[in-house]
Amino acid sequence: MNWDEEVICFYDKHTDIAIYGHAGGPFSPSSLTINSETNVESIIAACQRYKEQHWILDDTQTLYKGLSFEGLVALFKEKAPKAGIITPDLRAMYSGQRQAIICLAAEDLARRLASKCPQCQRANFVAKQLTKGLLCELCNMPTQQVKSTTSLCDCCGYNHIEANEKHVADATYCQFCNP
Question: Which domain range does residue 71 map to?
Answer without folding.
Answer: 30-94
